[in-house]
Design a protein that fits this description.
Length: 264
């Protein structure tokens, strides 16, 4: 089995002080994809930037203190890549990728956006540029006889069963019709598979993000925006998936929870 986990850490330095280090030491994952690390390599404690037994790839944003992605692997990567060939986004800490013997794994932090603002324009530009890369990635993996997996915070709830209060969020970034349509293209046009939804077809959830506001966590009023998006061959090998939701509000080290999938 190969186990892959993805989590938006909501600031890696802060998460390290609240339980991330202990989680990483205990996890059975072979690969961990992280988003919103918001830290330079030298700002991280040794236990985080170079944990024993892990090969680490960190891709901070040129805009310090923002965004940032990382990929940790127990297996030495054959290749590493930061960015996806975008002049605008390759230094913004949005995408990093490693290549293993049979698998290419990417960590994605898609912009969150904000309806009716320049932030939403940025998100739409990112989606427009990233879609062709996903097509190229699948082709490259097929030619190499490998599978591809893009994990991360996609910042889009695809269906109504992917967020609890969908009726009140129809005009909110993350659940806009054009965003959901774009994600449908990833699945229907490019042939990728939403692995967790394949394993849990009925819903609701399982949610992976809960606002810090109000009682969202206690009431499980969440969103499912953290995905394992895989090529078909890999998706068929997914045997189990779990959202590692903290047992209580005070035990959280991020507003997201790790989404962990084991593949045969």
């Amino acid at each position: 089995m190969l186990t892959v986990s993805t989590v938006n850490v909501n600031g890696l330095r802060a998460a390290a002080k609240k339980g991330f280090v202990e989680w990483l030491a205990a996890t059975d994952a072979d690969v961990v994809c992280m988003q919103e690390t918001r830290a330079e390599y030298e700002q991280l404690p040794e236990a985080v930037r170079a944990p024993e037994g892990w090969y680490t790839l960190l891709a901070p944003s040129a805009d310090k203190g923002r965004s940032g992605v990382a990929v940790y692997s127990r297996h030495q990567p054959l290749e590493r890549r930061i960015g996806f060939g975008s002049e605008e986004f390759d230094t913004s800490g949005r995408y990093a990728e490693i290549e293993l013997d049979q698998l290419i794994v990417g960590s994605l932090y898609l912009p969150s956006g904000e309806a009716g603002t320049p932030k939403q324009d940025e998100k739409e530009r990112f989606m427009e540029q990233f879609l062709p890369y996903l097509r190229e990635l699948r082709s490259r993996a097929e030619q190499a006889g490998k599978e591809a997996l893009v994990c991360g915070d996609w910042n889009i709830a695809h269906q109504e069963i992917d967020l609890k209060n969908w009726r009140n969020n129809r005009k909110v970034a993350g659940f806009l019709p054009e965003e959901r349509s774009w994600l449908s293209r990833v699945f229907d046009e490019l042939g990728y598979v939403d692995v967790v939804r394949r394993l849990f077809p009925e819903g609701p959830g399982p949610y992976s993000w809960w606002s810090y506001r109000g009682k969202a966590f206690d009431n499980d009023s969440g969103w499912r925006i953290d995905y394992h998006v895989a090529t078909g061959g890999l998706a068929e090998r997914a045997g189990s998936a779990v959202v590692e939701k903290a047992p209580s509000y005070d035990k959280r080290w991020s507003d997201h929870a790790p989404v962990t999938v084991s593949y045969a």
